[in-house]
Every structure is written in C-alpha cells, then in structure tokens.
Write a structure and sequence with these properties.
Number of strands of chain B: 23
CATH class of chain A: Alpha Beta
Number of strands of chain A: 13
Distance between the termini of chain A: 41 Å
Structural class of chain A: alpha/beta
Number of domains of chain A: 1
Largest interface: A-B, 66 and 77 residues
Order of helices and strands of chain A: HEHEHEHHEEEHEHEHEEEEHEHHH
Distance between the termini of chain B: 28 Å
Radius of gyration of chain A: 21 Å
Shape of chain B: globular
Low-confidence stretches of chain A: 5-12
Shape of chain A: globular
Strand order of the largest sheet of chain B: 11-10-12-13-15-14-21
Strand content of chain B: 15-25%
Oligomer: heterodimer
CATH superfamily of chain A: Thiamin diphosphate (ThDP)-binding fold, Pyr/PP domains
Number of helices of chain A: 12
C-alpha cells in the first residue's frame, strides 16, 4: 500500500464529467465538504469557498490532502471543504504540533491547516512560532476576526489597540501581528488578505500550495455576530473600506504553458519551488516582497498607522523544510513494511556486546 | 536501638558482616557532583562484575551539574541480590559537604575510607577507619593540576581494590573499557589506580572480613540502564516517530533511542526511516506524536511527571479520537523542581486516568531492563492494535541505574499495525465506518490519510461523533461511543502482558508489586521465609488494566500486601476499583522517600502490618 504518493499528472478518477473539470478531470464539487454550521455571512465561509476554488483550480488530488485545525470557529471549517480528504480537528492551539507529526509520518501529504487568531496568536503562539522556525511544509491559514467567536466575542491577541468590543469594552493592548512574527521566525511565504477579496485570497492560496515550506496567510475574516460593529477594526465595513492591497496578484500554475507578457516595469514575477509563478502587479506603492527589511518596515508602519495592507508581504528562502531537515526517505514512514523498521537480530547482538 | 561496636581482646574494632563475608558487600562513595567520579564508580562496579560477582549500582545524584554532594553505591552479592541496601559496609568519603552526615549514618563497625583533609571532621571511635592522603597521592601521577580533581577519584578505586581484593587485571580492563578510544585518559587512570593500590598495600591491611573473590555468576550477562534498554526497545519495535522535550530522568531514554536509530535505521544512501523532533515543550511533543500516529507512524515520546501534566489534554484526544500514541514515563518525585533526581512510582494513578471526561489508558509496568526493552517495543504494537494512548511506566531507579541482565533476545513477535484498511481493502469491502465496532471487540477499523480511495476518508475530532465519524451531540451517539471505548478497554485486559506469579509452599499471604520494586521484593520474600518463617506468594503486575489472573490471585488470598513506591497507594486504589469486593484485603506497604526501595523496608512494612492485624484480632 502506498499512501499519498504524488501522481502529478494522470487523472486518477475517470468518471465522465458533466461540467467543467480541472487538470485531474475533477469537478469543483469534488472539493466541497459538509454544510457549514457557522453564522450566516461569516467571513470564514467565504474563505472556505476560496479554499475549494483554489485547490480545484490548482488540481490537487483530494486524497493527498490532510486537513488540520485546532479549536474555534475557524477550526471547524476544515469539515466544510474537501470531504474526500482526511481531516483532523485537534486541540486548541496545537495544530502546529500536529502538523509536525503529520509531515514526518507522511511527507507526501499536502497539509492544509486552518486556525484562528485565538488559536494561533494566544494559546498557540509558542507552538506556532516553533513550527515556522522548523519550516513545517503546510499552508497555515489564520481566519482572523480579532475575537473569540465560539465563546461569544472576547478579544483575542490580534485585536487592534483601541478596537471596541460589542459590549463597549476597549482593547488597550497592542495587537500581535501574526505576519510580523512569521517573518521574524524566518517564514518564506507570508501573506495577509481579506475574506471579502476572494480573488486575492485564491491567488495567495494557490501560491501557498505551490510553496514548499510553511506558508502563512493571515486573512481578516469578520465575525458577523460578535465583532462586526462600529469601532471594530475587524468588521466587514471597516475591512472593506480600509483594505489597501500592496499589488494586484495573479498566479500561474506550473502546468500551464501559457506565456503571458508582463511589463517588467510594473509587474514582478516570483517563481515558487514547483515552477509555479506569482505575478505581482504594482499598485500605488513600490513594494518588493522579496526584501526582508522592507517588509519589517512596512509592517511596523502598518501597525503604527493601523493600515490594513494586503497581499504577498514576504517570500524568500526559508531553508530546508522539515522533512528535508530530517533527511527522510522518499516514501511515507507511515507505510514502511516491518522489514524496513526493525533492524535484524545481528544488530541487537552487536548492541548486546557493548553492554557485556 | 543502639549497637555497641564489637572489639577483640586487644581492643581492636571488629568490623560488621558475618565471619565469611565473601562476595557480599555494599560500597558507598560520597563525592561532589561534576568531579568526574561517575567514571571511577562505573569502573569500580565493572571490575567487580567482571570477576563474576553479581553487581548492581545506584547513583544518588542531585539536581545540579557541579558542586552538590552525590553518592554512588555498589552492591556485590553472591546470591544475586543487587537491589539497594540501606547501609553500606564500606563508605568512601571524598566530599567535605556531606562528610559529617555520611559518617553519622554509619553503623558501628562499618569501614570508613576518608580523604586525609576531611579526617578532622570524624568524631567517631567505633568505626574501622583508613585515612588516605588522596590529595598528596594524586600529585606524582597527575602533573596536570587541572585534571587532579578527576584523577583523584580513580585512586580510591585502587585503594578499594586492595582492601576488598578486587582483581587488578579486571580493574585495568574496566578502565580501558570506560575510556574506550581515549587511550591517554585510560593510561593516566590506570597509573593512578595502581598507585592507589600500591599505597594501600603498603599502608593498610586487607579487610579482615569482607572479601571479593572470583566466581562465575555474570558470564555472558550485561549491565544496562533501563533507559538504554527502553530506547533500544523502541528502535527494535519499529518506532518511526519520536518527539521529546528534555527532562530528567527521561532524557537519556530518548538520547539512547536516537543513537540506535542513527546506527541502525538509515538506508544505504543515508536517508532515515525515522523522524526525531526535539520539541519546544511537552505539549508539542505529544501533539506531534498524536499527529504522527494519526497519519500512520509508530510514534512515541518519553517524559516525566511534569511533562505528563502538560500532555494531559492530548492524552484525552488520543483516547476519544482513537489515535495510537506511546508515552514512556520515567517517574520521579513531585512537581516543579521537586526532587527531579529521585525515584518513585507516583504517576500510576494519574497516568491511568489522565485527561478529562472518562479516560482510561493501558499501562505497561516493566520490572527489569529486559522488560524495558520488550515493553517499549510492545507498546507500539498495543497502541496501534488498540488505537489508543499506551503508557510505559519506568522510574528513575529502573531508568537511570545500572542493572545486571541477561542479554536481550531478538523480538520474535511480528510488528502489529492493527486494524488499518488499505485502498484495496476498501474496494473489496465497499463500505467504511470509522467508529463502527465490526468485530465486537470495541476496536474499529481505521484508514490513514493519503489512502487513495474516497470511501476511506473520515474526519477526526474529539467531539461527539457517529459511527461514520460525522459530528453529533446526540446523547445516544455519545453514550454509545464511550460505552464502546469501555468495551475496548476490556479487550485491552486480554492483550496486555500477563502478570508473573511466584509461589512458595505453604504460603497464605499474597504480595502484589510491580516495576523497579521486583528485585528488592524477591530478596525480601526469601528473607521473610528464611528468617521469619513467612512464605509468600507473589504476583508481579506487568500491566494495567488487570486481567483474569490478577482477579484470581486476589480472590485466592485472604490478605494481599500491595507494595509500591508512592504515598497514596495508587496501584492498590486501581485494584480496588476493579475488585471492590476485595477492597479490605488489599493492604499497602509503601516506600516514598525518594530512595530506591530496599528489601528491609519491605520486610519491616509487612511485619508491621502483620503485627497490627494480630493486635486487632
């Protein structure tokens, strides 16, 4: 039995497609999951739709995906996409730890993780930073609404200073900037987006899937029930009015031979490990996401002036991903036969001699 | 009770021990932590062991890298009793910090070897004292002043060699073994040991009573620490994922496992068939272990009490979501800094019920290095067979001290991956329900992420779920699921290693014990029978939950002493939960001062309990 061995081209499912299909011959419905049980209009559902779209368009075999999450509204959403993938809704704040184990056990799996701002920046901050530091290959999505939705709206650690709670309380503490943390820890793919900007989210997600290493996407996702009022800096209205994209994003997957003409003066190309390309068309700012010091300055400025800057904040070399650091064999450890994992009796006899 | 020291007609002290105390001696060496005395002490132990005399050693060390007092005891015993003994026959005092206490604790007639500089501290006149000018003796053999602090230790080994008749050839061999490829260090130490020996030969008589002489009881045997054995067991048990966070006394278990993984589990091209992660904390360790177990690795972590506490939440998830995982707990005392370098069996109850809700976990209870090896390997099978968290409960005494053992035989039992369905299996079956009890043993079938068949996909969660793994908060689904988990735990009773039963003719009294207590208990039983006329039957638990054999043993005896190394009778409490009808028959003999248990403490505990029972009736 081979589990999760990549099959890059040939479509595994040869069912007769009724509608539009992707490169594997799969319809978009093959990427859907269970019905959402979140509040109507929740930003998270918009992100779920973007995840479905991006994985469908990129053409990932659902069986190769491991969906991982912690606890919270955001973490529930892994049930709402890719019903034909294994999913693990684990422990609050510990998705990062789970991912280390999953990647080690089966390096061929594509790990899609969904966390929240409380899950990542409060209870799970330590594990999150260490995961980034280890460069665990995964798409790490933070559905960031600045509050704890599932326990009725308490502030989380990403709430902006001065942000007002539904009940009127004002947050006096500075926010933890998940993206700044990720850059600081050496992450090679750091993005921020808005649930209400699916075009950008989809491009960023595809880029994250193509990227080999930890890809962190912090997506502001308004909580329509507890954090959508005036005075909140994570509300639909606020985010929509203040979103300030750094560039216009596009994504060209490795399997598309289409040659697009780019004006090098206005569009920057970033090539990812699998050959896919992200296109970054210049908007107002002259921003280079491959310049690490520039991103830190920018995030500092954004924090100070409470700017909601979106786009690919940083991409660069993050060193070897975890499975390469571990120097793992190509096939999954999970399915190695007994003969590969138990040394022969002579080996034991050799060890015993050393204790005589 | 105070003992008068015995003196001969000329007024000389007659030392302790029976007239022909051949191959029956306990040596205690008091040094300062970080002076390199461990090497000298291991050489001392190894020299005696190599003379064919059964030998065990206990290292009583502080939570400190340099400066605090540390003690090393070597017990050589012709009958093979190598558990701790409370008192040493020969005490070597090298440490100014502890000398007063060390001398005060000696029995009249005991033998004291003391560094000349410390002799002023000795006020007793009832000891056999040999004053040795160690600080002067080291000078000519070790010109390098920086090394003297270390080399001085091997001098007392030389002195002991003369005093107790340790074979010089074996001593030389032991030095060579200890230093391996460091030839210069070996030469220096050999020179120093012989210098100590020659000085002693010229200046002090051989011990009038205690004597070591060659016998043949250690041929082919090994000396090993439980942590080395357990680390090896994981490697030969087919471990593929190890995550850990350093904590005394479990770190060396992981470090040993890593050494053997590197040696034996790499493909010819250097690629690893295993993954090891030193995590940022114990939560991440167990999280990674659970993640890896979910994805199909044979995964484990090792830790101690404080780590177990941090792992509590994931332990419950492993139980409810039915994910294979192994925790090896090398038990130590107390929370926080509470005696991290002392031993106990204080995590039994906590581990058995770790986490929230109704949780129960199988515990393996190795009683020897051999079982540390076997059970570490078997834990991976059980975790996958039962799809749950399995504990292996060592303790500091078993894990970090040196134990004599037969060499381990290769594991013949096949690696068991449990009920895992492949893509092909799913095609044949045509259906799959992750939490359906198809076989009636409470254990369901699982699939691994990456299985190329949509039939096999399912969603894992700690919350309520149906047989098909869909979300449910319905009372019927919740209760049905945890009732099945209880059935699975009953299946575990039949799969765990069976207890070992040892009987004596005419015995009416039963004893239950487990883990590192075994050696001291066997010694205590022989002495209870031979010295006090009390034969006993002994059931050594090797796992929890208990099975039919233990129930039967409890039913067959009117009184059962449960001997364990904790204050709260944790194992007895678990036995009472399983056998409420026998609750009052189970009486506890407890040892929990941080020192490894000894036979005398067990004898004292049982005789006191017997006396109390007599007085009541």
């Amino acid at each position: 039995m081979t589990v999760g061995a990549p099959t890059p081209t040939a479509p595994a499912v040869a069912a007769k497609p009724a509608g539009k299909v992707n490169r594997l011959g799969l319809e978009q419905t093959a990427y859907k999951g269970a019905e959402s049980t979140l509040c109507a209009g929740c930003g998270h559902d918009a992100i779920t739709a973007s995840i479905i779209k991006s994985l469908y368009e990129y053409g990932i075999e659902p069986y190769r995906v491991a969906k991982l999450s912690g606890i919270g509204c955001s973490s529930k959403t892994t049930a709402y996409f890719l019903g034909q993938s294994h999913g693990f809704n684990s422990v609050h704040g510990r998705m990062a730890a789970i991912a280390m184990g999953v990647n080690s056990a089966n390096r061929n799996l594509v790990n899609i993780g969904v966390s929240g701002d409380g899950d990542t920046a409060s209870i799970g901050l330590g594990n999150f930073l260490h995961m980034v530091r280890r460069n665990v290959p995964m798409v790490y999505i933070v559905e960031n609404n600045g509050c704890y939705g599932l326990t009725k709206g308490q502030f989380s650690a990403t709430a902006d200073k001065g942000s007002v709670q539904k009940g009127g309380g004002v947050n006096e503490m500075p926010p933890i900037d998940i993206c700044a943390m990720a850059v600081q820890m050496g992450c090679g793919y750091v993005a921020r987006s808005f649930a209400g900007d699916p075009k950008q989210v989809v491009s960023l997600l595809k880029g994250a899937v193509a990227y080999n290493g930890t890809a962190v996407i912090d997506i502001v996702s308004p909580c329509v029930t507890f954090n959508n009022h005036e005075g909140s800096t994570k509300s639909q209205t606020y985010a929509r009015a203040n979103e300030d994209p750094l560039h216009e994003l596009g994504f060209v997957p490795f399997f598309e031979q289409v040659t697009v003409e780019y004006d090098p003066g206005t569009t920057k190309l970033v090539t990812l490990q699998d050959g896919s390309k992200i296109t970054l068309k210049k908007l107002e700012r002259d921003y280079d996401p491959t310049n690490r010091s520039q991103v830190m300055d920018l995030l500092h400025q954004a924090n100070k002036e409470q700017l909601f800057l979106t786009g690919l904040l940083y991409t660069g070399d993050a060193g070897k991903p975890l499975d390469e650091q571990l120097n793992l064999i190509d096939e999954p450890l999970a399915t190695l036969p007994a003969s590969r994992i138990r040394p022969p009796p002579e080996a034991l006899a050799k060890v015993m001699e050393t204790f005589k | 009770m105070s003992l008068e020291v015995a003196r001969d007609g000329a007024g000389n002290i007659v030392p302790n021990a029976a007239p022909q105390a051949v191959n029956d001696v306990v040596i205690s060496v008091a040094t300062s932590n970080g002076t390199g005395s461990q090497s000298a002490n291991l050489i001392l132990m190894r020299s005696i062991f190599n003379m064919g005399i059964p030998t065990g050693a206990k290292n009583m060390f502080p939570s400190n890298i340099q400066g605090l007092p540390t003690w090393f005891t070597v017990r050589a015993n012709h009958s093979g009793w190598t558990a701790r003994k409370k008192h040493a026959d020969v005490v070597v005092c090298m440490n100014v910090e502890s000398v007063e206490d060390d001398v005060a604790n000696m029995r009249p007639g005991d033998t004291l070897i003391i560094n000349k500089s410390l002799y002023g501290k000795v006020k007793r006149t009832d000891l056999l004292v040999h004053v040795v000018p160690f600080d002067e003796l080291v000078v000519p053999v070790c010109p390098d002043t920086r090394l003297r602090k270390m080399v001085v230790n091997i001098l007392y080994v030389g002195v002991l060699a003369h005093l107790l008749n340790i074979d010089l050839e074996e001593l030389k061999k032991a030095i060579a073994r200890q230093f391996g490829s460091k030839v210069k260090a070996a030469e220096l130490n050999t020179k120093a040991a012989l210098h100590g020996y020659e000085w002693a030969k010229a200046n002090i008589p051989a011990h009038p009573k205690l004597k070591l002489q060659r016998m043949d009881k250690t041929a082919g045997k090994i000396v090993i620490e439980g942590n080395q054995a357990a680390g090896l067991g994981l490697v030969f048990g087919g471990l593929t994922f190890l995550a850990w966070y350093p904590i005394t006394p479990s770190s060396s278990l992981c470090e040993n496992a890593i050494d053997y993984l590197e040696e034996f589990r790499k493909d010819p091209d250097g690629k690893a068939t295993y993954a090891v992660i030193q995590a940022e904390d114990e939560i991440a360790s167990i999280g990674a272990v659970v993640g890896a177990g979910w994805a199909g690795a044979r995964s484990a972590t090792a830790t101690a009490g404080p780590g177990i506490s941090l792992m509590s939440e994931f332990a419950g998830l492993s139980y409810f979501a039915e994910i294979p995982a192994v925790i090896l707990d090398v038990q130590r005392m107390g929370p926080s800094t509470g005696l991290p370098t002392r031993t106990c069996q204080g995590d039994i109850f906590k581990a058995y019920h770790l986490s929230h809700g109704d949780c129960k976990h199988p515990l393996l209870l190795p009683g020897s290095p051999q079982e540390c090896f076997e059970f570490a390997a078997e834990s991976l099978n059980l975790a996958e067979r039962l799809q749950t968290l399995v504990f292996v409960m060592l303790d500091l005494d078993l894990g970090m001290n040196n134990w004599m053992s037969e060499p381990f035989a290769p594991i013949t039992k096949a690696i068991d991956r449990g009920k895992v369905l492949s893509s092909e299996d799913l095609k044949k079956l045509g259906e799959f329900a992750r939490y359906k009890d198809v076989d009636g043993d409470g254990i369901c079938y699982r699939t691994l992420p990456g299985t190329d068949n949509p039939l096999g996909t399912y969603f894992t969660r700690g919350t309520g779920h149906t047989e098909k793994a869909t979300y449910s908060e319905k009372p019927k689904d919740w209760k049905g699921n945890i009732d099945r988990l209880a059935r699975k735990f009953d299946t575990a009773r039949t799969l765990m290693p069976k207890p070992v039963l040892k009987t004596m003719p005419g015995a009416e009294v039963g004893i239950i014990a487990f883990g590192s207590t075994d050696m001291a208990l066997e010694e205590a039983r022989v002495r209870l029978r031979d010295e006090l006329g009390l034969p006993t039957n002994y059931l050594r638990l090797r796992a929890l939950p208990i099975g039919a054999e233990t129930r039967e043993f409890i039913a067959q005896h009117k009184v059962i002493y449960v001997v364990e190394q904790n204050r709260d009778a944790q194992c007895a409490s678990i036995l009472r939960l399983d056998c409420p009808e026998a609750a009052t028959k189970l009486q506890s003999v407890l040892h929990y001062d941080g020192m490894p248990i000894d036979a005398q403490s067990i004898i004292d505990g049982i005789t006191a309990a017997q006396k109390a029972a007599k007085e009541r009736s």
